[in-house]
Write a structure and sequence with these properties.
Chain A: InterPro entries: 2Fe-2S-bd, 2Fe-2S-bd_dom_sf, 2Fe-2S_ferredoxin-like_sf, 2Fe-2S_ferredoxin-type, 2Fe2S_fd_BS, Beta-grasp_dom_sf, Diverse_Oxidoreductases. Chain A: Keywords: 2Fe-2S, Iron, Iron-sulfur, Metal-binding, Oxidoreductase. Chain A: This is (2Fe-2S)-binding protein. The structure holds two protein chains of two kinds. Chain A is of the alpha+beta class. Chain A has two domains: 70 residues, Ubiquitin-like (UB roll), CATH 3.10.20.30; 73 residues, [2Fe-2S]-binding domain (DNA polymerase, domain 1). In chain A, strand 1 and strand 2 form a beta hairpin. Chain B folds into three domains: 147 residues, no CATH class; 108 residues; 122 residues, Cytochrome Bc1 Complex, Chain D, domain 2 (Orthogonal Bundle), CATH 1.10.760.10. Helix content of chain B is 40%, strand content 6%. In chain B, the strands form four sheets. Chain B has a three-stranded antiparallel β-sheet with strand order 1-2-3, with no helix packed on it. Chain B has a two-stranded antiparallel ribbon with strand order 4-5. A two-stranded antiparallel sheet of chain B has the order 6-7. Classes of the chains: A alpha+beta, B mainly alpha. At the A-B interface, strand 4, helix 3 and helix 4 of A face helix 14 of B.
């Protein structure tokens, strides 16, 4: 039995040490917000936080976690940077098909946490490992900047636009 | 005229005499020093299994993933053609089932097979000649206890004159000496056991000892490092800068038993196979003995010595998630590739993210300006199934061009080794052909 701290809750899981964390999260604990993409740490879809650091859960053996805290997309909105990122994501309407987006948000939230006002180069370095087949990269960059500065970077969507303004 | 004939006869006789003398076989049984993993009191099959693993027979005689243990067929691409390993199961038709004890012992210790033909020294009889008869026969007993597999041997694809087996007699005369392990009474029992493990069983020197022009081992330069099948087998002499002299005992033991030592490196390529198939099965006392022996190997710089910068400035100026400290004229293509494909596991500070096996700082690979093993690993990935979870890195050979692989290798060498890498797209193209 392993004891895991996920999103502030303690879970006892009966799994082999070498099972990747992603399997434990999705199939054992039932948190399916984190996605399986490539399985070889090349696409970023499975990104979660370990003590605030982004890690690829598809290649992280659960036995290597110890007592470090796991945070997933389900709870990232409870952190200040995660909250800002998620709001900007809605305002800019980043998401297209959405499959990669929980990973994108986890990487972006970690970036904002350590670099509150990231440059383009900072964003490249932090986000290059997260691949989006829909090509939402332009909106991802805008949303990260908007989350950092609070200033509107590109056209906002209807969802959160003030009432009465033209789309 | 008569005088000339006499001279010719004398020269021929001298030549034949030298050939016979240099090819003389040591027929003594030999005595092995005590091994913790194969005590004399143990049953012969248990000893045989341990010795078979310690001699790493499977690495060459089992095609990975074939589920046909010891049925042979592994290809060895050499500069002069391809050799295939043979079936050493007890199958009578294709394997060695009809071999007597003496046949087996002769093959192991003289490099001559049952039909009297010479074996090629890709089969390390040059090392196994040190084995005691009792150990050789324990290995035979173990092999004969396994299921017979009737897989025919593949024909070697060697060019002339290398396909002439009889010619190996001359190679043996020049480079091989049939002799049993001789314990050195001046050294500790542990050292003697370690030497036996290193030389007779694990045959470390077959990869790590430089070879001369005739492909013979340079015994005076033992374990100073060599390049084989496109991989660099590093200098493992006691040299503190270029060898393993600066490694702690626990570094060495950890590397041998698990394939990784923090801040030193992770086994990849053929060494990963050696750890996976052989070294990790050594009894801890035998591993410790091996370390004792390696520590005594005279320090040598070896060819193209590698000097490690374990505090590479660019990596130290980076944190786990963001780069720093790269020079202004940094190789941008390499950085971009690292950013997208590598950083999520290796991290910008080279400490390794999901597993310490992915750490790069302080390793010899990233400090080798020729990027030999880095290029290999980028092209072909890495697999290591040792204790604990399987460690693997995907291969990027099909994803990236030669130019990209070269840029990435040079970036890695600059960032984690603080050196100017010299990998060119042509080097990468050559590596692709080699494997």
């Amino acid at each position: 039995m392993l004891s895991l701290s996920v999103n502030g809750q303690s879970h006892s899981v009966d799994v082999p040490d070498d099972m990747p964390l992603l399997w434990v999260l999705r199939d054992v604990i039932g948190l399916t917000g984190t996605k399986f993409g490539c399985g070889i740490a090349q696409c970023g879809a499975c990104t979660v936080h370990l003590d605030g650091q982004p890690v690829r859960s598809c290649v992280l053996p659960v036995g290597a976690i110890g007592n470090r805290a796991v945070t997933t997309i389900e709870a990232i909105g409870n952190t200040p940077s995660g909250q800002k990122i998620q709001q900007a994501w809605l305002d800019v309407d980043v998401v297209q098909c959405g499959y990669c987006q929980s990973g994108q948000i986890m990487s972006a939230a970690a970036l904002l946490q350590r670099t509150p006002n990231p440059s383009d180069a900072d964003i490249d370095a932090a986000m290059s490992g997260n691949i989006c087949r829909c090509g939402t990269y332009v909106r991802i960059r805008a949303a990260i900047k908007q989350a950092a500065t609070g200033k509107q970077e590109i056209l906002q969507t209807l969802v959160s636009a003030p009432e009465g303004t033209a789309p | 005229m008569k005088r000339l004939l006499v001279i010719v006869i004398i020269v021929v006789l001298l030549g034949v005499g030298a050939y016979v003398y240099l090819n003389r076989a040591d027929t003594s049984d030999g005595t092995a020093p005590a091994l913790a993993g194969a005590p004399a009191s143990a049953e012969v099959l248990a000893r045989g299994e341990y010795l078979t693993k310690a001699a790493d027979c499977t690495a060459c005689h089992t095609v990975p993933g074939s589920h046909k243990p010891f049925a042979g067929g592994v290809a060895f691409k050499l500069p002069f053609g391809t050799i295939y390993s043979s079936n050493i199961t007890a199958d009578e038709a294709n394997g060695i089932g009809s071999w007597s004890d003496d046949d087996f012992v002769r093959a192991l210790r003289q490099g001559v097979r049952k039909d009297g033909q010479h074996l090629y020294p890709a089969f390390p009889y040059t090392s196994y000649t040190q084995l005691s008869r009792s150990d050789a026969l324990a290995i035979k007993a173990y092999l004969f206890s396994l299921p017979k597999i009737s897989q025919p041997n593949k024909t070697n694809d060697l060019s002339f004159p290398y396909n002439q087996r009889w010619a190996m007699g001359f190679w043996n005369a020049a480079f091989f000496k049939s002799e049993r392990f001789q314990p050195d009474p001046a050294q500790s029992p542990q050292w003697n056991s370690g030497k036996y493990v290193a030389i007779a069983l694990e045959h470390c020197g077959e990869c790590h000892t430089p070879r001369n022009l005739g492909f013979g081992l340079e015994h005076g330069n033992a374990l100073a490092g060599e390049e084989l099948q496109g991989w660099r087998a590093y200098n493992i002499t006691s040299d503190k800068v270029h060898g393993i002299g600066a490694w702690s005992d626990s570094d060495l033991i950890s590397y041998l038993a698990t394939g990784h030592a923090d801040g030193r490196g992770t086994a990849a390529g053929p060494m990963a196979e050696a750890v996976e198939n052989s070294l990790r099965f050594l009894n801890p006392s035998d591993t410790a003995a091996l370390v004792t022996y390696l520590r005594s190997v005279p320090a040598r710089a070896g060819k193209d010595p590698i000097t490690i910068d374990a505090q590479a400035a660019p990596a130290l100026a980076s944190n786990n998630a963001a780069p720093g400290g790269d020079s202004v004229d940094t190789n941008h293509a390499g950085l971009k590739l690292f950013e997208g494909a590598c950083a999520s596991c290796h991290q910008w500070n080279g400490k390794g993210q999901q597993t310490p096996y992915a750490s790069l700082l302080g390793t010899r690979g990233v400090n080798d300006v020729r990027g030999t093993n880095v290029t290999q690993i980028l092209l072909h990935g890495s697999n290591l199934h040792a204790e604990g979870p399987s460690i693997f890195m995907p291969e990027f050979g099909d994803a990236y061009s030669n130019t990209e692989i070269a840029a990435l290798a040079n970036y890695v060498i600059a960032h984690f080794g603080n050196k100017q890498g010299t990998v060119t797209p042509d080097d990468v193209a050559a590596r692709r052909k080699q494997f």
